[in-house]
Amino acid sequence: MQITVIGAGAIGGFFAGLWAQAGLNVTLLGRARQAAEYANGITVSDAQGWQGHGQPRFTSDPAALAHADLIVLTVKCTATLNAAADIAAHARAGTVVLSLQNGVSNATDLAAALPDFTVLPGMVGFNVVPTGPASWQKVVSGHVKAQRHPILDQLAAIDIAPVEQVADMERIAWGKLLLNLNNAINALSNVPLREELWQWHYRRVFAAAQRETLRVLKQANIKPAKVGAMSPTLMPLFLSLPDFIFRPIANRLMQISPTARTSMCEDFAQGKPSEIDFLNGEVTDLANRYGIAAPVNHRIVELVRDAENGGRREWSGRDLTRAVLSRRK
Ligand SMILES: NC(=O)C1=CN([C@@H]2O[C@H](COP(=O)(O)OP(=O)(O)OC[C@H]3O[C@@H](n4cnc5c(N)ncnc54)[C@H](OP(=O)(O)O)[C@@H]3O)[C@@H](O)[C@H]2O)C=CC1
Ligand SMILES: CC(C)(CO)C(=O)C(=O)O
Questions:
Q1: Same domain, 157 and 178
Q2: Ramachandran category for residue 263: left, alpha or beta (phi over 0 → left; psi -120 to 50 → alpha)
Q3: Among 228, 255, 230, which Cα is nearest to 241's?
Q4: Which ligand is located closest to the Cα atom of residue 187?
């Protein structure tokens, strides 16, 4: 049974290393420039002190997809269709493709591009950061979930990040998207996740984006699942609490290491296009389809696009609140 992970970044590097150290047969399909970095395997760890080392095969040749029994896609949403073209060109028809990406539309897009393959949506509920070359650490508590399929049984019992199989991923994907509404705020703040969430002004913007999204989802009759420590409807209330109440409760509910940053913050740092269209952009698209306004998410999309085009990147909580919330009407 061969697993090929496409994308040797944070999520791909972490899972390829984790699964290889657990004894699974793993190939990591990355870019040619990454070959030297991954030549001696991958160190994986968590923030509680666990550490392991795995040695997946590294290749930058998509022809290697011909040997895969399970393909795990860990590229950014902006790269999904290019990766799908590689899969269509090289992998065997019928191969299972698991998307471990954020957003709600990757699996649908993949299924449309790969009609002869079995596509499974998946969700990674935690954050991964580099701790050195070919060295990845899980720095936020959380789970991995995926659409049920027998081929995933081999990933179910792996410590640190077991893959839980579920019957319906749509509600879970929307539950995760509610958390990912913070990715843009974190990127625009340009401070680590914990430092950002510890500030009421940033949380106000996050809560407003969530409230608006919950209203849109209600119209669309989508009931987002609980993905983090709290139900989706309680989250905006919790985020709106003053710091002196929020911080001690948050400390008990979630582990966020001081180095954690959202993946969009990393995109900004590396000058890569962000996934904004697949996160807050999904909300504004859905709102448009139902003829309702989503000014908070709309404004956040605008600010991220502006930052990507050279505009302001380091927003204080107060300035961001003013820029997003004062123009709501
Ligand atoms: N980072 C995190 O902690 C979390 C990320 N996620 C989600 O997981 C997904 C992956 O994110 P992340 O790991 O951070 O992304 P990264 O940008 O760190 O890694 C993606 C890698 O895939 C490479 N890539 C893109 N297309 C191909 C291709 N066709 N063949 C081979 N390699 C390719 C990219 O190379 P290049 O840059 O050259 O294109 C890059 O090295 C995203 O949807 C993200 O939102 C979910 C939870 C947490
Ligand atoms: C941080 C986390 C886990 C939730 O926002 C994430 O999904 C990301 O960084 O993209």
A1: no
A2: alpha
A3: 230
A4: 2
Structure confidence by residue, pLDDT tens digits, 37-76: 999 999 999 988 999 999 999 999 999 999 999 999 999 9
Residue that the structure tokens 């509610």 belong to: 178
Specify whether 99 is located in the same domain as 192.
Answer: no
Domain count, the chain: 2
Ligand 2 neighbourhood includes 274 CB (under 6 angstroms): no
What is the 10 CA–ligand 1 centroid distance (Å)? 7
Look up residue 178 and give its two tokens.
């509610």
Secondary structure of 206-238 in HEC code, one letter for each residue: HHHHHHHHHHHHHHCCCCCCCCCCCCCCCHHHH
Q: ipTM of the assembly?
A: 0.98
State pLDDT tens for residues 224-238.
Answer: 999 988 999 999 999
The protein residue whose alpha carbon is closest to atom 2 in ligand 2 is: 127
Range of 150's domain?
2-166
